[in-house]
């Protein structure tokens, strides 16, 4: 293995799992990946080695660079997310197990592989991941793997669209054609409803006049009620007094 990166122990917060620092459990995690997962996922985790106040990171791959500084950033992100999604399937299966020991490994792998707590390094052919620390990294955005991985043969064919050709040449209208058009227009006119051409009858006019007079009368009464409301109240009081005195006269 070759050293490719170092971090100061006081720069980041180490992650813990089961009352132990996560990075200190590298050998157990690596052995589990070797014996339980496909060989594709065996060497993507970098090996941490503590040296005084630094953590040195080692990998079997050479010429590794951070994806932020590499010309192969897109490749590194794609490979990381392919590994991430495949490993997530394994993690979900482990967590669904009824065996607590199996669930333990699902939980620890889920903690190890976290985009926010991973630093990705690549050489254009392989990737290596620095892990086990609270990096709070927001640079590992997921690329569009679906479109990039679809072969051209599976994409729908593009059908060229031809613009409609306009018929510029128009046939001259002959006398016969004009006659046929006039006959057609007359037939369409005859088909129109006949009542559209008759004026309203006298009876209908009388009804309209009566409705107008009624509306005017209602408007006038409304105006009187709004403007001279106090007169109406006074009349009502006078009527009440008249009936009151009349009742006294009858009793006496």
Radius of gyration: 46 Å
Q: What are the low-pLDDT stretches, counting only 5+ consecutive residues below 50? A: 146-161, 189-200
Put simply, the count of helices is: 7
Could you state the oligomeric state of the chains shown?
single chain
What separation lies between the terminal Cα atoms? 131 Å
Kindly name the structural category. Answer: alpha+beta
Largest sheet: 3 strands, antiparallel
Order of helix and strand elements from N to C terminus: EEHEEEHHEEEHHHH
- Say how many strands there are: 8
Query: What portion of residues is helical?
Result: 40-55%
Counted up, domains total 2
Strand content: 5-15%
Shape: rod-shaped
Keywords: Membrane, Transmembrane, Transmembrane helix
Transmembrane segments: 223-245
Describe this structure in words.
This protein has 2 domains: about 1-150, no CATH class; about 200-250. The protein has helices spanning about 25-35, 75-95, 100-110, 145-150, 175-190, 200-225, 230-250; strands spanning about 1-10, 15, 45-50, 55-60, 65, 120, 125-130, 135. β3 (about 45-50) and β4 (about 55-60) form a beta hairpin. It is of the alpha+beta class. The protein is rod-shaped. It is built from 7 helices and 8 strands, in the order ββαβββααβββαααα. Strands 1-4-3 form a 3-stranded antiparallel sheet, with no helix packed on it. Strands 5-6-7 form a 3-stranded antiparallel sheet. It is about 45% helix and about 15% strand.
């Amino acid at each position: 293995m070759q050293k490719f990166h170092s971090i100061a122990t006081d720069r980041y917060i180490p992650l813990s799992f089961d009352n132990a620092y996560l990075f200190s459990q590298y050998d157990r995690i690596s052995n589990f990946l070797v014996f339980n997962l496909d060989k594709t996922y065996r060497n993507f985790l970098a090996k941490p080695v503590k040296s005084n106040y630094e953590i040195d990171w080692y990998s079997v791959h050479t010429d590794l660079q951070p994806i932020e500084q590499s010309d192969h950033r897109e490749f590194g992100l794609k490979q990381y997310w392919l590994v991430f999604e495949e490993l997530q399937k394994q993690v979900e299966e482990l967590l669904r197990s009824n065996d607590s020991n199996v669930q333990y490994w699902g939980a620890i792998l889920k903690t190890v592989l976290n985009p926010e707590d991973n630093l990705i390094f690549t050489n254009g052919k392989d990737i290596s991941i620095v892990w086990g620390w609270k990096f709070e990294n927001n640079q590992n955005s997921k690329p569009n793997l679906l479109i990039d991985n679809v072969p051209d043969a599976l994409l729908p064919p593009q059908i060229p669209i031809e613009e409609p050709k306009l018929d510029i040449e128009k046939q001259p209208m002959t006398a016969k054609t004009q006659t046929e058009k006039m006959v057609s227009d007359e037939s369409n006119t005859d088909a129109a409803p006949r009542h559209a051409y008759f004026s309203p009858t006298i009876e209908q006019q009388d009804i309209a006049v009566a409705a107008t007079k009624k509306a005017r009368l209602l408007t006038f009464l409304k105006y009187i009620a709004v403007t001279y409301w106090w007169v109406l109240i006074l009349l009502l009081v006078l009527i009440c007094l008249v009936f009151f005195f009349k009742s006294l006269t009858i009793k006496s």
